[in-house]
Design brief:
peptidase activity; alpha/beta; Rossmann fold; membrane; Peptidase_S8_His-AS; seven-stranded parallel beta sheet; about 30% helix; transmembrane
């Protein structure tokens, strides 16, 4: 059976702050989530990713209000303190277990973290919040866990395709796919084409299988036409070493040790392109709210056009167009018209009269330079000759001999100069 893997790096680093646990959480149905993740401590400081993107100045222009972002993942805990506000998390659909179950619970925290990076609302005393805090999340549950026994969860392509079609039919205008595969799956490609025909922006992670620069890797759905492929950078602005390289990398976003919400309560640190992707999906929601008349393709092109240069370099295989910039994406004026090609340079036809005049002037200048040089040379020779003749007549053309130095040493005299201190006494 052909499978896909959730694009994440196994393991998280728990926040070293006070633990807050609440009894209110999106409880899974009986019999599910036998080994569910516990609540985590609350991270109160402002995370580096939110500092880098400087989101508050962007929210003066757009908060993503009214935009539905589908998170196709492991489910979303709808009772997390930053996600439980009325209407923030839609019921969604559970495609893992049989029956008509919602996707508002999460055994793993992977989907909850992704959703929180997209749309978590502010909570007093907590620095973390989502990129588009007024956007609405539509969860679609396609996996129970991102990692099973140290290996990425395996997902049937038909399940992913069904989730994409469902999200499209439920009115999502942005779809977040934090998953990747090295194979081109026809059912997923066709589902993406369908979503794009319904004006949906699709954002996908590029995967975390890179171990060197010499091995080219494929990544789907990031490589599909019109899909925004997202790579991950760390706090220094450099590509996370596992973030895959390729022409399918369209943008980069924070993805190394970024803060995300966990099931039940609290936060932890996550790494991988899975968590870079929602920064771009959230920015797409900001743009869709600020410019409702833009098509999905125009939104994607705006995100690429307004990306900021990556501090790690300009290699497009690593960083794409650069690092997503929410503020520029919602504020900059872009010219929708295609660039006007420059007219080819036409060399002017030489004017023979002008060329003859220039040649005549150059010849005159050259002749004058030679004449002046000859005159100066002759004058120098005459001057030297006159000096020699005068000295020869004075000495009656007899060679002179240098005066031999005296055997007695002359007394040293101080040089003629101004003294800042009293001059030395003359010797007796």
């Amino acid at each position: 059976m052909t499978v896909l893997r959730v694009a994440t790096i196994a393991g998280t680093v728990a926040a070293a702050v006070a633990c807050v646990v609440t009894s209110a959480y999106g409880a899974p149905p009986a019999g599910l989530c036998q080994n569910a993740d516990p609540a985590r401590p609350v991270v109160r400081q402002l995370p580096w990713a939110q500092q880098t993107l400087d989101l508050p100045r962007t929210w003066r222009h757009s908060t993503g209000a009214g935009v539905v972002v589908a998170v196709i993942d492991s489910g979303v805990d709808s009772d997390h303190p930053q996600l439980r506000a009325g209407g923030k998390i839609m019921p969604g659909r559970n495609l893992v277990e049989p029956g008509d179950l919602p996707a508002t619970f999460d055994c793993d925290s992977h989907g909850t973290a992704v959703a929180s990076i997209v749309a978590a609302r502010a909570t007093k005393g907590v620095g973390f919040r989502g990129v588009a805090p007024d956007a609405v999340v539509l969860p679609v549950r396609i996996a129970e866990r991102a990692v099973v026994d140290g290996q990425a969860e395996q997902i049937e392509p038909t399940t992913v395709a069904t989730a994409i079609r469902y999200a499209t039919e439920q009115g999502a205008s942005v779809i977040n796919l934090s998953l990747s595969s090295h194979r081109d799956h026809t059912v997923i490609r066709e589902a993406i084409v369908y979503a794009q025909s319904q004006d949906v922006v699709i954002v996908a992670s590029v995967g975390n299988d890179q171990d060197d620069r010499s091995t080219p890797l494929r990544s789907y759905p990031a490589a599909y036409k019109g899909v925004l492929g997202v790579g991950a950078i760390d706090a220094s602005g450099v590509r996370v070493s596992s973030s895959q390289l390729g022409t399918y990398v369209d943008l980069s976003a924070p993805g190394g040790a970024v803060v995300g919400a966990t099931r039940r309560a609290g936060h932890t640190y996550f790494s991988g392109t899975s968590f870079a992707t929602p920064f771009v999906a959230g920015t797409a929601a900001l743009v869709r709210a600020a410019y409702p008349g833009l098509t999905a393709d125009q939104v994607a092109r705006r995100l690429v056009a307004t990306a900021s240069p990556a501090r790690g370099g300009s290699d497009e295989l690593e960083y794409g167009a650069g690092v997503v910039d929410p503020y520029r994406a919602v504020t900059e004026d872009l010219d929708a018209a295609p660039p006007v090609p420059l007219r080819p340079m036409v060399r002017p036809t030489p004017d023979p009269v002008e060329q003859a005049r220039i040649a005549f002037q150059e010849k005159r200048i050259s002749t004058a330079f030679v004449s002046i040089s000859i005159v100066l040379l002759l004058a120098t020779l005459v001057l030297v000759a006159s000096v020699v003749i005068r000295r020869g007549r004075r000495q009656q053309w007899v060679a002179s001999r240098a005066v031999e130095p005296s055997a007695q040493r002359d007394k040293d005299e101080p040089p003629d100069q101004l003294f800042l201190f009293p001059p030395p006494k003359a010797e007796s």
